[in-house]
Design goal:
The chain has 240 residues and is of the alpha/beta class. The chain has seven helices and seven strands.
Length: 240
Amino acid sequence: MTDKPLALVTGGAHRVGKAFALHLAKMGYSIALHYRGSVTDAEKTTKEIRALGVECMPIRADLTAIERVDFLFALVDEFQADLQVVVNSASVMPAGDIRDLELHNWDAALNLNMRAPFLIAQYAARRMKAGGTIINISDIGAQKAWSRFPSYTVSKAGLDSLTKVLARALAPDIRVNAIAPGLVLPSDIVTPEKWNSLIEKLPIKRPAALEELTLTLEFLIKNEYITGQTIVVDGGYSLV
C-alpha cells in the first residue's frame, strides 16, 4: 500500500513510454509500469523509478487479450492506491502495402493501438471514483495518409476519435485527452537516411525532445479545464 496517487503507464519500459513513467514518478506518482516483451528494459526502468524513492510495480501483459487486461488491473488493485492517471502509450506499427497487407498485421495494430486503450479506459473508469485523467498517445500520422503503414494510421485516427467519445462519456469526473507526437526517436523500420530526410522537411528542423512530450503530459494533467483534445507536438510536421 502506498500513500502516493497511482499512475498506470502502458508500454512504459522504453522509449517514449519510459519518459512518461519517469516524469510521472518525479511528479510524485507511484507507477504501475506495463510492458509486454521488453523484460530487460522494464527491469532497468523499474530500478530507475525506485531510485527516485517512488514505488514501482512492473506488470507484464499482452493488452490484446482481455484476460491479460483483467490480470493487469488485478495487480493495479494490489497497490491499494488511488488511481489518478492512465497513459496509454503501448503501440505497434506494422508496415505493409495495402494491396497485400496480411490480416494479422491489421488486427495487431487495431487491437493494441485502439481496442486496448478502450478496454483500459473502461477498467480505469471503474476505479477512478474520485476522478482522474486518461491520456492516449496518438500520432501525427492520424492526420496523414501514410500508405506504408495503413493499419497504424487508421488505428491512431480511431484513437483520436475514441479520445473524444471517452471524454464526453466520462465527464465531468474523468478527463480524457491525447498527445500526438511527430518525429521523436528513430525506429528500426526507418533508415537513418530516411529519418534525416524527414527531419529536414520539418519547419523546426529537429526531432522532439522527450522533455517536450513529458511537459505536454504534465500540462494536460494539471490543466483541469481541458478534455477531449488531441495536442499535436510535431515541430510543424502537420504543416508539410
